[in-house]
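Quick review question:
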């Protein structure tokens, strides 16, 4: 009973933290749309989506498997492990930022200053420590040091844009608060996580550490590729549909943020029970997740058109024909996040996790381009749903096979002991 109450408390804590920033994000979207219109907001949505792709270059796998690795580490080693990751990610950010600016500026030549400010603002959170606090199973620290500064940046940007009608100033405000979040998260971890941590700025060891994250990086990169690529394809081929797809993408991401507490809890819960309980907990997570995913997908489909109408004040057309593929995308991605990130990693299948996302990208990217050329916006949305389905089915098959192998090995060792 005590364990169940503890689990409920963690999920509730993570849900409160992520739900808070989701509500703030939606309210901010409403104000921005009313202030600058759907055209400029569509460009901003494209920048935010691209940040999801280039941000993977910054997080370099730590955001993918870091929570499970933190949960498995002793408290004394966590601070130095985080310090090492932070230095490596700072160098990666310095490389990723100019590349992102060049790509997005070439696609949005009338909004170069917005691209410069937005790229900086939305890459910064990838230097943060959300995954570390998830691994610590600490929703309070996640909220206080990571989510709250970002939310305050969104809140503060509202009066800025109302007073100036200048989206660049509003995004620059978000940049300032995102930077504060990165700094205070790092200070808290480095000062209070076990043994004192030391920051080593030498370039060679910073780059050498990336080798250990290569499988996680492959997973994160390919996953972000076919999640963020649709906006880049639309930006290049059908820019008039940016706002429509951007709103569908926003709904999907908000729904995924609401689902994040489940992923965050399971990522810490499975490994913390020790190796002997991993198989049982993976089975429980695999069985229960589809129910939550179905409910979330149904909510996206039923409430999506209504939510878009309110958020855009009727400026953006978004019917059930678009809500359906985005609901399916949510269903498959939410399953994949639990089955892939939370289940395959503690089962020792990080390579398989990487392989599944490579498979999704190999199927998805050609489909996305073909869909855009053949059926426009709807073709892109359905292509994304198909690619996510391929990834999820593959991961599920691998989990079933791995569980069968672990069952056989357990029975074999038990009979041998007898």
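Suggested answer, residue by residue:
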């Amino acid at each position: 009973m005590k364990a169940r109450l503890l689990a409920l408390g963690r999920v509730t804590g993570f849900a409160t933290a992520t739900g808070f920033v989701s509500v703030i994000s939606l309210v901010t979207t409403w104000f921005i749309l009313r202030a600058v219109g759907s055209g400029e907001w569509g460009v901003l949505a494209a920048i935010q989506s691209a940040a999801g792709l280039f941000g993977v270059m910054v997080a370099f796998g730590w955001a993918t498997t870091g929570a499970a690795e933190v949960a498995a580490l002793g408290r004394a080693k966590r601070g130095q492990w985080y310090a090492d990751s932070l230095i490596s990610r700072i160098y990666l950010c310095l490389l990723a930022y100019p590349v992102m600016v060049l790509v997005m500026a070439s696609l949005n030549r009338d909004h170069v200053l917005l691209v410069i400010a937005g790229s900086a603002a939305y890459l910064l959170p990838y230097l943060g420590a959300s995954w570390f606090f998830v691994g610590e199973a600490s929703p309070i620290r996640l909220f206080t040091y990571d989510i709250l500064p970002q939310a305050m940046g969104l809140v503060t940007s509202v009066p800025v844009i109302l007073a100036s009608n200048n989206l660049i100033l509003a995004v620059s405000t978000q940049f300032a608060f995102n930077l504060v979040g990165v700094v205070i998260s790092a200070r808290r971890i480095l000062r209070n996580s076990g043994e004192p941590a030391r920051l080593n700025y030498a370039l060679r060891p910073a780059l050498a550490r990336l080798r250990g994250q290569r499988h996680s990086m492959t997973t994160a990169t390919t996953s972000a590729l076919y999640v963020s690529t649709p906006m880049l394809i639309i930006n290049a081929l059908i820019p008039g549909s940016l706002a429509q797809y951007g709103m569908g993408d926003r709904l999907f991401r908000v729904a995924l943020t609401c689902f994040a507490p489940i992923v965050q809890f399971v990522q810490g819960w499975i490994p913390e029970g020790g190796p002997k309980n991993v198989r049982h907990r993976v089975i429980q997570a695999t069985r229960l997740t589809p129910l939550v995913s179905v409910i979330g997908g149904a909510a996206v489909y039923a409430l999506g058109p209504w939510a878009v109408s309110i958020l855009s004040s009727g400026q953006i057309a978004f019917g059930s024909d678009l809500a359906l593929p985005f609901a399916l995308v949510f269903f498959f991605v939410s399953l994949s996040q639990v089955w892939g990130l939370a289940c395959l990693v503690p089962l020792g299948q990080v390579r398989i996790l990487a392989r599944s996302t490579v498979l999704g990208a190999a199927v998805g990217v050609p489909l996305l381009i073909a869909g855009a050329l053949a059926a426009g916006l709807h073709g892109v949305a359905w292509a994304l749903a198909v690619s996510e389905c391929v990834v999820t089915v593959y991961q599920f098959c691998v989990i079933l096979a791995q569980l069968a192998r672990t069952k056989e090995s357990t029975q074999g060792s038990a009979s041998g002991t007898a």
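Why it works: The first helix runs from residue 2 to 59. The chain has one domain: 2-412.
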